[in-house]
Specification:
This protein is of the alpha/beta class. The chain has 6 helices and 9 strands, in the order E-E-E-H-E-E-E-H-H-H-E-H-E-H-E. It has a domain of about 140 residues: P-loop containing nucleotide triphosphate hydrolases (Rossmann fold, 3-Layer(aba) Sandwich).
Length: about 200
């Protein structure tokens, strides 16, 4: 179980949120919503071990997250291009995380010809699928999906979330779905929602 206990975080002396607690079980999807600037992204980064909390703790099965090594909680950016070297081809970007499972690549909707392309040569939805496959290649136990379908059209959103829900269910991966779109979270979440305000 991924658990946040009384988390607080911010930047410098500016607090974004305080006393946030939540629990996420393996194989479940929990929605996190709130207005812009409420600290949703920062909370996601804290849960993934990418931003230090100013108070509280993040636990994985009752133990603190380790600061080094392959992270059991992977963070998926709203803009996946920020997490990719623009000078590398997609094949190299994926190989950085290890050898992707071909079945998983198919489940993510990855086309073989994408591997020889650069990130800027793919659509936003295609690049996000690459980002998801790369995160899944390290066999995480949890994913923090930060507004991953915000720039996509509704049909692309549905396809991407359908694929991610199926993969998470089959592999027992917990997903924290961050969005400002409460209707989207109503459609994809099986565990409920938490609001940051």
């Amino acid at each position: 179980m991924l658990e946040a206990r009384n988390l607080a975080a911010g930047f410098g002396t500016i607090p974004l949120f305080q006393n946030v607690s939540l629990r996420l079980e393996a194989g479940r999807i929990l929605g996190l919503w709130g207005r812009s600037g409420a600290g949703k992204t920062t909370l996601g980064r804290v849960l993934a071990g990418l931003h230090p909390p100013t108070a509280g703790e993040v636990l994985l099965d009752g133990s603190p997250l380790l600061p080094k090594g392959v992270r059991p909680v992977q963070y998926l950016h709203q803009n996946p291009l920020l997490a990719m070297n623009p000078r590398w081809r997609i094949g190299r970007i994926l190989a950085e995380a290890g050898r992707p499972d071909p079945h998983l690549a198919r489940a993510c909707g990855i086309e073989p010809d994408w591997l020889s392309r650069y990130p800027h040569e793919l659509s936003g939805g295609q690049v996000q699928r690459i980002s998801i496959l790369r995160a899944l290649t390290v066999r995480p136990r949890y994913l923090v999906a930060d507004e991953i379908t915000a720039p996509l059209d509704p049909a692309s959103q549905a396809r991407l979330w359908h694929a991610l829900r199926d993969i998470a269910s089959a592999r027992r991966i917990g997903v924290l779905a961050i969005s400002h779109d409460q209707a989207l979270l109503d459609r994809i979440c099986c565990l409920g929602q938490v609001q940051v305000s």
